[in-house]
Specification:
By secondary structure, the protein is an alpha+beta fold. It contains 3 helices and 4 strands; from the N terminus they run E-H-E-E-H-H-E.
């Protein structure tokens, strides 16, 4: 079953984020993932959450492929670029 992931980034290192973005699509595609939508200016409709600087919705063919993307040893340097850009939360739905 299709699995979506919500990625929320709080950016403190734009250079690292730029390097990550250059490699992220290829890393996602390796496990059948794609970015459905990304926004640098999310808006709260209700509540008072800690707001990210950027939010993205990813789609994977299934949960196993999403988890494989996250744990793939060959992609760890790319994930480190994301982590080096600030803080990130990734939630599977």
């Amino acid at each position: 079953m299709t699995t979506h992931a919500v990625v929320m980034l709080r950016i403190t290192n734009l250079e690292s984020l730029t390097q990550y973005r250059e490699k992220a699509a290829e890393a996602l595609a390796r496990h059948g993932g794609e970015v459905l939508q990304a926004s640098p200016d999310p808006v709260v409709l209700e509540g008072a959450p800690v707001m990210p600087d950027m939010i993205a919705i990813l789609r994977f063919p299934d949960r196993a492929r999403a988890e494989a993307w996250k744990t793939d040893p060959e992609l760890q340097s790319i994930h480190e670029l994301r982590r080096g850009s600030g803080t990130s939360d990734i939630i599977l739905m």
